[in-house]
Design a protein that fits this description.
- The chain is of the alpha+beta class.
- The protein has a domain of 56 residues.
- The chain has two helices and four strands; from the N terminus they run H-E-E-E-E-H.
- Strands 1, 2, 3 and 4 form a four-stranded antiparallel β-sheet that branches.
Length: 94
């Protein structure tokens, strides 16, 4: 079943994607070298996170949905396109 961009992802689904796509020796923070990441999911865990696209009045006109990680040590932020994760999950589940 095709999921929409509004569909929440579980931490386990994101972890499966990272395990499959990111080599273990490339998971450390590019800034500080520590390999401890937090998955940011918003206050309730169901909010849509991503990059806001603003107009000239600084009003949000669109959102580029993303999976957001932050380094526990230095706070560096890493993002992965949510659609790519959803596409991979769909392929894996068929």
């Amino acid at each position: 079943m095709k999921r929409s961009l509004n569909s929440p992802l579980t931490a386990q689904e994101v972890e499966r994607f990272i395990d499959a796509k990111v080599p273990a020796d490339r998971r450390s923070c590019p800034r500080c070298g520590v390999d401890r990441w937090n998955l940011s999911q918003g206050e309730s865990g169901n909010e849509m996170l991503g990059l806001s696209i603003l107009d000239e009045r600084q009003k949000q006109v669109a959102l580029y949905p993303a999976i957001v990680f932050s380094c526990e040590n230095c706070g560096f932020v890493s993002m992965h396109a949510k659609q790519t994760v959803l596409n991979w999950l769909e392929e894996e589940d068929t």
